[in-house]
Amino acid sequence: MSADHIVILTGAGVSAESGLPTFRGPDGLWEGHRVEDVATPEAFDRDPHLVHRFYNLRRRALDSVGPNAAHLAIARLQRERRVTLVTQNVDDLHERAGSTGVIHMHGELRKALCTRCGARMEWIDDMEVDTPCPACGKTGGMRPDIVWFGEMPYRMEEIESALMDADLFAAIGTSGNVYPAAGFVRTARFAGARTIEFNNAGTAVSGFFEDHRLGPATVEVKRWVDNLLDA
Fold first, then answer.
1. Known active-site residue 106
2. 112 and 122 belong to one structural domain
């Protein structure tokens, strides 16, 4: 199977195989917290100390994990084919595997946003309520550059354009429950792209995919990329 333009969407299932918790576990909690308490603008307004503590821990956790075979396979595919890589993940494992131009539609843990001046910047340290913005010097406005529930994902026009131009769309480790990403397969199919889903089990949008590969991404994605490039 060859393709001129491949669009790949990755979700929490890919990072989970590196040891990072998925966005929401079977108990409805995210690392012990209700999503409403740590991942909404209202939560940040209500208890910024809790939200900062939560994301500080998640940022530190990145130091203890590394890219897995799926990340490395995707990076290899990018080097040899025209690939637009979109991720719902806020970690930097794709970049550490060698991928470039990654579209982080939900933001990045290692970036910060100042709500006072709008500046965005790289950020690896802890962040607190009184952390001053390096750009404007004001305090009280710094937050993780993460797209929370109720906020618009980043670079949507660019993503939609890539989907409309895609010859092949692959979703890897996504739940199919979070929109707008869950609707990407329909956009791609409308534009005439072939579609393939990689997951450990069926998802809410599995019926829209033409091809399915069940099993760990570290196994199935690597096999898929090897077959594409070695054919």
1. yes
2. yes
